[in-house]
Amino acid sequence: ILPYIAVMFTLLLAACSGEADKVAKEKMELANAIVNENPDSAMRILEEIDKQGLSEHNLAHYALLYTIAQDKSGLDVDDDSLLRFAHEYYSANTTDSMYARYAYYMGKYYLLNDSDKIAHDMLRTSADVAKEQNEYYTACLALGKLTNSLSHINPQVAIEYAKDVVDIHCN
Questions:
Q1: Could you give the CA distance from residue 78 to residue 68 in angstroms, rounded to a whole number?
Q2: What is the spatial distance between Cα 123 and Cα 82, in angstroms, rounded to a whole number?
Q3: What pLDDT, on the 0 to 100 scale, is given for residue 1?
Q4: Which of 51, 77, 127, 143 has a CA between 20 and 30 Å from the CA of residue 100?
C-alpha cells in the first residue's frame, strides 16, 4: 500500500504544480497585454505569481516580462539577476515568440554596462527577428537604440538604422 500512496502523492503534486503553472501563465498573459501602457500594474500582477515550480519557459517569460515592466516604469535594466533566467532559456530557444524582445532587453542591458559590441549585436538581432515576426514595435525600439548608440561612433550606420525606422513607420 505504501508504493500506492507514494504514487498518488506524486500525481497530486504534479497536478498542483501544473495548476500553479497555468495560473501563472494566465497572469503573465494579462501582464503582457498591459505592460506597455500600464507597467506598474503589470509589475503588481507579476509580483502575485509564485515563481516556485514554474516551468523553465514560464520562468524565463516571467523574468522577461518583469524586466520590461521595470524598464517601462523608468527603472534601468542594468541588473542581470532577472535577465539571467531569460538568457538561459531564450539563447537556446531562438524561435520563441518573445525572442526579439529578449534580445532587445539584453542589448539594452549590455549598453548600460559598457559592452557596446555585444549590445549592438543583440539589438541588430532583435530588430531582424522582430521584423521577421512582424513585431514592428520591438523592431523600432531596437533600431532606435542602435541609432542613438551609434550616432557618435558611426553616424553613417546610425543614419541607415534611422532610415529603417522611418521605412517601418511609412509602410
A1: 12
A2: 19
A3: 54
A4: 51
Q: CB-based burial of residue 157 (10 Å sphere; 0-12 exposed, 13-18 middle, 19+ buried)? A: middle
Q: At what angle do helices 39-47 and 56-72 cross, to 10 degrees?
A: 140
Residue 79: phi and psi, rounded to 5, are -110, 125
Average per-residue pLDDT for the chain = 86
CA neighbours closer than 13 Å in the CB half-sphere of residue 21: 15
Cβ-contact 109, 135 below 8 angstroms: no
Q: Which residues contact 39 (CB under 8 A, 6 or more apart)?
A: 68, 69, 70, 71, 72, 73
pTM value > 0.90: no
Within a 10 A sphere around the Cβ of 88, how many other Cβ atoms? 14
DSSP conformational letter for 51: -
Instruction: Name residues whose C-beta falls within 8 Å of residue 127's C-beta, 6 or more positions apart in sequence.
Output: 100, 138, 139, 142, 143, 146, 164
Would you state the cell numbers that stand for residue 70, as one nine-digit string?
521595470
For residue 161, what are the contacts with CB-CB under 8 A and spacing of at least 6? 143, 144, 146, 147, 150
Separation of alpha carbons 106 and 86, rounded Å: 9
